[in-house]
Write a structure and sequence with these properties.
Elements: H1 6-16, H2 19-46, H3 49-60, H4 62-68, E1 73-74, E2 80-84, E3 89-98, E4 105-113, H5 127-132, E5 135-144, E6 151-155, H6 176-179, H7 185-189, H8 192-232, H9 238-250, H10 257-261, H11 269-272, E7 278-282, E8 285-294, E9 297-308, E10 311-320, H12 322-333, H13 338-348
Antiparallel strand pairs: 1-3, 2-3, 3-4, 4-5, 5-6, 7-8, 8-9, 9-10
Helix pairs in contact: 8-12, 12-13
Length: about 350
């Protein structure tokens, strides 16, 4: 099968999904994607030199052993913070889990690349140099359960200002272990880059939501028009087919050979109704329309005929595009029946010169 054959099925599937289901699917897919991204990020942070050097110092520092009440310390758990190779700064929050069930804690480590603050001779270092650069741990502190203040093991003034993605040191309503994984909201709110990211993300969500609502609206109108066609479908009688053929001649519409040959193949909405006649017959008056595929695209031909002396004669023929016919009929259908809506549209639409026949 060709790839395009699956498109109608995909559109039909989207059409059957409600907005709540779509939101749930988006959150579910987003959660799975974020989960894999976080796993990859954790692996990247653990493989970085800053984490390796910090863990080595934390596991050997007697102040850490004394603070958490254990001589054995491991750093298993979820790491927070960031490593910005381009800017040359890093802030990590590393969980401290003692082996003897004593107090748990969190270590905060700040580092900068060795090229940060140096005199640039040939401009900013290349990406290869940044990737191979050594990192200098300039600040390390730990905070154990029950501590009111963090214990600073060492600290050197920073060359770069802290990134807005760095975890906050300030106490908040969040527990300490959870606070270590979130950026400083005050700094993030003042960051131009963060606000740009939020703005772009909001616009993307709004555009996706608008597109989905518009698509659902279009599909709803399509279903309503299909129901209208079912109500107005006329049996293919010989006299009605002759009236239709005369109307097509007056409208100067040349049907494509494939449309005539494959009129029963419902590949598209036009092909599904190709050559069928929809309308109403009352007494000796018929008002109807037919959607046909022509060389220059799909056309909707409206016609009205009256029976005079045993023969049917056209007294109105007009042509429009199928989407225009659909919109106008559905608007008229809100206050009238299907037959009355079609009659109103024929009455207000100027007729083509009938002499063409």
């Amino acid at each position: 099968p060709t790839p395009t054959r699956g498109l109608p099925m995909s559109l039909s599937l989207i059409d059957r999904v409600s907005i709540k289901q779509l939101i749930g699917c988006c959150f579910g897919a987003g959660g799975v994607t974020m989960g894999f991204a976080l796993l990859a990020r954790q692996r990247s942070l653990r493989d970085h030199a800053v984490f390796t050097a910090a863990c080595s110092q934390l596991e050997r520092a007697p102040q850490v052993h004394e603070r958490i009440g254990s001589m054995s310390v491991n750093t298993r758990g979820v790491i927070g913070g960031y490593v910005d190779i381009k800017a040359g700064s890093a802030v990590l929050t590393i969980p401290l889990a003692p082996a003897g069930g004593a107090r748990k804690g969190v270590a905060r480590v700040e580092a900068e690349a060795e090229w940060v603050g140096g005199a640039a001779v040939d401009g900013e270092p290349s990406h290869e140099i940044k990737m191979r650069a050594r990192w200098l741990l300039r600040h390390m502190e730990i905070e154990a359960d029950g501590d009111r203040d963090a214990l600073v093991l060492y600290s050197v003034p920073a060359v770069l200002p802290p990134s807005p993605w760095a975890p906050s040191r300030e106490p908040s309503v969040l527990p300490r272990g959870l606070r270590a994984f979130f950026p400083d909201l005050k700094a993030a709110a003042q960051s131009k880059e963060v606000m740009q990211l939020v703005t772009v993300g909001s616009l993307m969500v709004a555009m996706q939501a608008s597109a989905f609502v518009a698509f659902r609206r279009q599909q709803t109108l399509k279903r309503e028009f299909e129901q209208l066609q079912q109500l107005l479908r006329l049996a293919p009688e010989p006299w009605l087919s002759r009236v239709q053929a005369e109307a097509l001649v007056i409208a100067q519409i040349k049907r494509t050979p494939t449309a005539v040959a494959d009129s029963g193949a419902a590949k598209t909405s036009v092909a599904a109704t190709e050559g069928l006649i929809f309308g109403a017959v009352k007494d000796e008056l018929v008002r109807a329309f037919s959607v046909v595929q022509a060389v220059d695209g799909a056309h909707a031909v409206l016609f009205e005929a009256v029976k005079v002396g045993g023969a049917w004669r056209l007294r109105h023929v007009s042509s429009t595009r199928p989407h225009t016919l659909q919109d106008d009929l559905l608007v008229a259908l809100q206050k009238r029946s299907a037959a009355e809506a079609l009659a109103q549209m024929i009455d207000v639409t100027p007729s083509l010169p009938l002499e063409r026949a």
